[in-house]
């Protein structure tokens, strides 16, 4: 999907979409019998179901439409890969949080305070002190 051509002078890789890289990816030659084949649309976005039947060499209205369409598809795939990567990171962090949530260490490090039991204890202490003082 990506060009990945290594340039030894700069020590870098070409990271353009392979379809859109004019330096390292050459388009095949167009023969005289090739037909354009671009899907025709009505009102910009509504497909008609018909295709352009003009010879590819003479159709200037849809110049290199295949290349642009492949680039759109590749960019959508890249977006989906990035979104998938984000979701995998999110899932990993949620799983880590879930695993650390129910651990014994968490229970031992954090104390809880039961108000009902402590109320009874303080009342019992107060009642015992009142009886001792009388």
UniProtKB/TrEMBL annotation:
Q: Does the keyword Zinc-finger apply?
A: yes
Q: What is its main location?
A: nucleus
> GO MF terms on file?
DNA binding; zinc ion binding
BP-aspect Gene Ontology terms = positive regulation of DNA-templated transcription
A Pfam family annotated for this chain is CpG_bind_C
Segments forming domain CpG binding protein C-terminal? 1-108
User: What keywords were assigned to this record?
Assistant: DNA-binding, Metal-binding, Nucleus, Transcription, Transcription regulation, Zinc, Zinc-finger
* Subcellular locations according to the entry: Nucleus
Any one of the GO CC terms: Set1C/COMPASS complex
Protein name in the entry: CXXC-type zinc finger protein 1
